[in-house]
Each structure stands twice: as C-alpha cells, then as structure tokens.
From TrEMBL:
Role summary: Structural component of the gap junctions.
Organism from which the protein derives: Lingula anatina (Brachiopod)
Localization per record: Cell membrane
Annotated InterPro entries: Innexin
Protein name per its UniProtKB record: Innexin
Keywords in alphabetical order: Cell membrane, Ion channel, Ion transport, Membrane, Transmembrane, Transmembrane helix, Transport
GO BP of this protein: monoatomic ion transmembrane transport
Region annotated Disordered, chain positions: 1-21
Record flagged with keyword Cell membrane: yes
Transmembrane segments: 107-125, 175-200, 277-302, 366-393
Keyword flag Electron transport: no
Length: 476
C-alpha cells in the first residue's frame, strides 16, 4: 500500500508541474500581448480570447501563425478548416530566408517558368511563324519555307523602305526561337543563390527552417508542447553559441574579437560569431548582382538597349509609336532562302518572302512586364540588403534585443547594465541576433519575444551558476 500511495502522490505532483508549466507559457504570452503597442495590436489584428474551462476561470490564449509580421491570437473554432487548407498550401515551403529573397528565388522563378510554358505552348502547339509564299508553291513548299525561316532567322525592314539586296547588310532577328529556353535558364539563375545559401547555412548546425516550423505549426498551440519546444530550441542555440565561441586568450585574440564586431571584412568566421550574417549579406549581394545582370543579359539576347527598354516603351506609348516604327518585336519580317532546281544554266533560285511572327505579340508583352518586374525586384533587393546591413552596427543590435527585453519586463526602460551588454555582445553575438531577427521575419514579434525571454533566463541561470555544467562561463 505505501508504494501505491507513493505512485499516486508522484502522479499528482507531475500533473501539478505540467499545469504550472502550461500556466507559465500562458502568462508569458498574455504579458507579451498586454505589452504590445496599441498600433501593433490593432493593425495585424492581434486578438485575445479568454475561454472558460475546467473548475476555475482562466484565460486560455491560443496562438495561430499568420503571414503578417506579428501574427494574431484567436480561438480554435471555425477557423480550423481554413487553417488546414492554408497549411496544405504552404507545406513543403522552406522559411530560412526573408521575403526579399523569396521574391527572387520563388516568385520571380515561378513567373519566368509560367512565361516559358506560355511561349512554348504557342511555339510547339500553334504556328509560331507563317510565311506568304508564291502561288506556285505547293503545300510541301510552304511547310519547307515556314520551317526554314523559323530556323534560319528573319530580319526586319520598315514598310517605307525597300527590301535590301543579298549583299547589303541587314540585321537578323534570332532570339524568338530561344525565348522558352532562356526564360527557364533565367528562372534557374534566380534560384542558384538560394541553393548556395542552404548548402552553406546547413553546415553550421542551425536549421532555421526547422526552428520556424516548430514555432509556427499547429502543434505550437498546445501550451505544454510550446513550452517544451522553446526550452529545446534554447538549449540547441546555447550549444551552438558555445561550440562556435573562440576560447583562445591573449591580447591578439581579444583584438580580433573586437575588430570582428565592427568590421566583418577583416575577421569573419564561426568562432568570431559573424559567419551567418556575413554569409547572408554575401548571398544578398549575389541576388542583387543576378537581377541587375539579368537586364544586361536580356540586352545582349534581344540585341537592343534592353536596360532602358522600359523607358522606351513608356516613350512609345506617350508618342503613340507602334512596332512598325520602333522595330521592337516586329510581327512582320522578311526571310531570304534559296532553292536548287535540276537543269538550266543556274540551278539556284533565291526567294524573299514576307513572314508573320504572332509569337512576338506574346514576347513583347512578356518582356515589357519582365523589365518592370526586374526593376522592382532590384529596388526591393537593395532595400532588403540595407535593412540587414544595419545589423552590423552594435547600436542596432542592442536596440533590437533590448526592445524585447523591455517588452518582457526583463530590464528597466533606461537600463544598460553589464549583463545586457554581455548577453548581446558576448553570448548572442552577431549570429545570435541574426538568427532571432530572421526568426522574426518568418514568424512574428510574439515568437521572438518568447525566444529572447527564454534565452535571457537561460543565460542568467548560467551566470548565477544554477546549472554550472551547461555552457561556458562568459565574463561580464
């Protein structure tokens, strides 16, 4: 009997501990929600629903991930079916970068692939070119002429100009056959920086996609599971920070650490705590170089001043100029070919036929959209690069972390203690702040506040030697 009562007592204590853990998670989320500014709480539709359950009256907050930057709180009711649909749509998509990166490697790549399929359908299903042949040509002659002119290329001459002779120079139009292939290559080029980022990022030991999914999935609605997930992620990040820390002592080592905080160009690497942020900024530069290089690539491919093509289109629309005057993506072109006949003094007959290219009607609209889209992506990529470049400054890192520590009531409003400095600059360092900010870009402020709060609690416990075996002691 004593063993029976002992088992019953241990089970009761376990239930009490689980309930206290869930209550701590609920109180933490409620404190974050209460501390959010009114502007933040209103615009993203941050909502708090309290439910009556059990024997007492408690406030039960349910968290649901949103596509906005803050997310919102709501009950589990009629929205569950809608969330399931959204979950299936977004399943399999990684969340280890920000919106500006996805603008290039996801949305732009999809746009180029769709355009390639549209042009390919027109080329291989319909008639991409139709030539006006002499009346004595048979059907076989017409098919031969169409196929030859499609492969050989055509050239454009204005309607008010005479047809040039064989020896006179004329510029051929040779891009329309390769448009689908070039569009697919462009889509691949937009995805290459993403591949490089995931390959190099995956070797650090921090899987941002797993962290984001674990904190934004439906399983995070359970307070107990959410609290356990946060504790596990905090221990995982602590091991990462501890493993990457340079333990070497001396004046030279201290100087390198100090320089690496302000200039990642001189000292960059895992042990300096700036590997991820440096790698990410390099990937940003690759994204920017790719999208700008695409404009010049299209200029060489189309044989026009394509880097200013958008302004030329606007000028043509304002001046009411058509393709017949500008010569851009002409619908009607000329084609020269020769046919051999048996017998006679000269068995080679030269023909010049007029051909219509309906495919250029699609190409013109597609490339007008592509030009303006690439300009938009370029501007967005520059803006995204500058926002992340600010994280190299110590002041910005402190402001970002201190904002959430104040939100969680961990520090005073005007407090700048040594403990806060050690937490940001010696414990988290640049990579730690980068991970938290990237987490915020893919989830919301509530998740980031909970993670920073848990990391701060774990850090202060180490400083007080509550758990002396976990991690390396950091000097304040």
């Amino acid at each position: 009997m004593p063993r029976f009562f002992q088992r019953q007592q241990s089970r009761t204590q376990q239930r009490v501990r689980e309930r206290e853990t869930g209550c701590r998670s609920i109180r933490r989320q409620a404190r974050i929600l209460h501390r959010l500014p009114s502007k933040v709480a209103g615009e993203p539709r941050v909502q708090q629903l309290r439910e009556q359950h059990g024997q007492g009256t408690g406030s039960h907050i349910r968290y649901v991930h949103s596509s906005s930057s803050l997310g919102f709180f709501t009950g589990i009711g009629g929205m569950s079916g809608f969330l399931d649909v959204l979950g299936k749509v977004g399943k399999g998509l990684r969340s280890d970068d920000d919106f500006f990166d996805r603008l290039s490697h996801r949305y732009t790549a999809i746009i180029f692939i769709v355009f390639a399929l549209v042009v390919s359908t027109k080329q291989y299903v319909g008639d991409p070119i139709t030539c006006w042949t002499p009346t004595h040509f048979t059907d076989a002659h017409e098919d031969y002429t169409n196929n030859y002119c499609w492969i050989k290329n055509t050239y454009y001459t204005a309607f008010d100009e005479r047809i040039p002779e064989k020896w006179e120079p004329h510029e051929h139009i040779g891009y329309y056959q390769w448009v689908p292939i070039v569009l697919m290559v462009q889509a691949l080029m937009f995805y290459i920086p993403c591949i490089v980022w995931r390959l190099l990022n995956g070797r650090t030991g921090v899987d941002m996609n797993t962290i984001v999914k674990s904190l934004s999935g439906n399983e995070s609605l359970n307070p107990d599971a959410r609290e356990g997930t946060i504790r596990y992620l905090v221990r995982h990040l602590d091991r990462y920070f501890d493993h990457q820390r340079d333990l070497s002592k001396g004046c030279f080592a201290n100087c390198k650490q100090l320089i690496s905080k302000h200039c990642i160009c001189l000292f960059c690497g895992r042990r300096y705590g700036n590997y991820l942020i440096a790698l990410y900024l390099i990937i940003k530069v690759i994204y920017l170089a790719n999208v700008i290089g695409q404009l010049f690539l299209l200029n060489a491919f189309l044989g026009t001043n394509y880097h200013i093509y958008g302004f030329e289109v606007i000028g043509d629309l304002m001046n009411k100029r058509s393709w017949k005057e500008s010569g851009q993506f002409p619908r009607v072109t000329l084609c020269d070919f020769e046919i051999r006949f048996l017998g006679g003094v000269s068995n080679i007959h030269r023909h010049t036929v007029q051909c219509v290219l309906p495919i250029n009607l699609f190409n013109e609209k597609i490339y007008i959209f592509i030009w303006f889209w690439l300009v938009f992506v370029s501007a967005a990529t520059v803006f995204g690069f500058l926002t992340w470049l600010s994280m190299l400054f110590q002041r910005e890192r402190r402001h970002y972390i201190r904002k959430y520590l104040k939100l969680m009531e961990r520090i005073e409003s005007n407090c700048d203690t040594k403990m806060t400095h050690a937490f940001i600059e010696k414990y988290l360092r640049q990579d730690g702040v980068f991970i938290l900010k990237l987490l915020g870009r893919n989830t919301n402020d509530v998740v980031v506040a909970e993670m920073i709060d848990a990391l701060w609690e774990y850090f202060t416990e180490q400083k007080r030697n509550i758990h002396p075996g976990n991690g390396t002691e950091i000097d304040v």
